[in-house]
Amino acid sequence: MLREDGQRPALDAIWQLLDTVPDPEVPVISVVELGIVRQLNWQQDRLVVTLTPTYSGCPATQAIADAIHMALWQAGLEQIELQEQLSPPWTTDWISPAGRDKLRAYGIAPPAGSASKRTLLGEEPEVHCPHCGSVHTSVISEFGSTACKALYRCDDCREPFDYFKCI
Amino acid sequence: MTAQLNSACRQALVDYLLHLGDSDTVMSQRLCEWVGHAPALEEEVAMANVGLDLLGQARSWLSYAAELEDQGRDADQLAFLRDEREYRNLLITEQANGNFADTMARQFFFDAWHFHLLTALCQSTDAQVQAIARKGLKEVTYHLRRSTAWIKRLGDGTAVSHQKMQDAIDDIWTYTGEMFTATSTDPLLVEAGIVPASAPLQQQWLGYVQATLQEATLTCPDENAYMQIGGRQGLHTEQLGYLLAEMQFLPRAYPGATW
């Protein structure tokens, strides 16, 4: 419980709590590591959590909001307001270094390069195989198991893998 | 922001937002019709995912339209409880899927329009329009990259794929001019800096389309050919009624249904 004495818990403690809430699609990474919790604020006794969606049509958006709400409620916070913020738009650059390591360990290649370099219309990024580390990889499909991923294959170890698209 | 709009401008913006939201909704519905029918599983997943992105963007546009019109409706009610004549989508989005080349020709022309329009809307003087455009542009850039690749791959492929791609382009071409026709109230929005003028947009679109088709060894149809218009006035082709009948069946048969 964050709140036993009726006092407002420190925002740092709430950030730590939210760092334990997993992304529903990629449960090894938390919603904080994914970069979708943008801000925490107190408005008097009400906690305002500002979230930004990864993709406009991400079906997990509501599940994420519900999971965050539940985690805060279970920690004893009752007055919670979730707000959606579109601008500035989420980018894969906001996935933390720890989050990238966890993705790789889970078998998902983290985004390569920086979204700000407009790699979208340019040449193919260099994607490392999360299993053997090889750079000899090729794209099977530009869309994978979820909207945020593409499907790749390692030409050395022959394993297919998901690649977290760089946007 | 919205407080600064006078009522004429506000109504014009609602109409424009419906145009964007409806075009995304109908395009999304068409793409998702491929699920279970696509030539390869990867392409099926890709089309469903593009459709999902467009559905998310449609929700953003329609939510903002609902907020501005202030009649107690939400995005779902706008999508599911308006009839054909109230829909403001581009005619190209409602055209049937046809074969895979037909779908990719339609998608390519739509994506190229969408990309250049959203790029311009990133500079909109309306903060919410700008925010939705900036979010959507990242996704649409990816869509355009994919449909452009398919145009080149099929156009510069075998004799059969080339012919099918050329036929598809020629067939859908008559629906492309509508993307750059303005309604009587659009000038209000252009003057306010909320949306871009259509003439420069058309030049950007045409430049991109011509360059891509040339690289794909395809012939670009005549830009001055007769064009079908009417979507923004609610005058649709016969295709839309069937699409809406399927899409809207559940919420109309079971009003307020949830699960």
UniProtKB/TrEMBL annotation, chain A:
Ranges where the PaaD zinc beta ribbon domain occurs: 115-165
Occurrences of domain MIP18 family-like (ranges): 12-72
Name of the molecule in the record: Phenylacetate-CoA oxygenase
TrEMBL record, chain B:
Lineage, top ranks: Bacteria, Pseudomonadati, Pseudomonadota, Gammaproteobacteria, Oceanospirillales
InterPro entries xrefs: Aromatic_CoA_ox/epox, Ferritin-like, Ferritin-like_SF, PaaA_PaaC, PaaC
Matches recorded under NCBIfam families: PA_CoA_Oxy3 (TIGR02158)
Protein name: Phenylacetic acid degradation protein
Pfam family, one: PaaA_PaaC
